[in-house]
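seq:
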Amino acid sequence: MPETRLAFRGSVNFSELAEYARSRDWAAETPSAHPVPGTEPQEADAYVFAWRSGSHGTARFIDDEVTEVQFIIFQGVESQAQAALLSNNFPTMTYEDCLDSLAGDISDEEREKSLETLGAIAPRDYDSSVHEAVSKGLDGNSSTIRSAAISATLQLSWTELRAPLMRVATSDPDPNNRAVASNVLHALP
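struct:
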């Protein structure tokens, strides 16, 4: 099923997003007026709200408390059209925007945020540009950048990231990064 992921730039007010959903005639699937704790393993530290969007699609809003990334996943044949409409009403970014940011001259804090966001919204199928950006992050000059890249690796769960992650697990100067990278290695397929 086609899927399109967008991250919100900054923080989105859920009430405004819910009002937008009502105006588009999306049908809420979450039995609550607000996001609820995620039920999927990768959503363990996130709050989620789901709608039926369009004629044969879904929209899932995810507020990840650990990475501090708020994003939405559209699934279905209308996913790109739904994403474009949302982007006309809310400041959003695509994974390509994250890649452009990471290619630029940005602060370490911006690099960390871009890596966390990239892990959340990049395609779930392997993409060489994303692989290159995350691999560079795993070799980053600061512990926090490498930590953000480890998080992105976990979210993407690509076996192609095993080799660069192994370098972190065995030789990162930060013992926390080594431990987390080792745990992520065991979680990768």
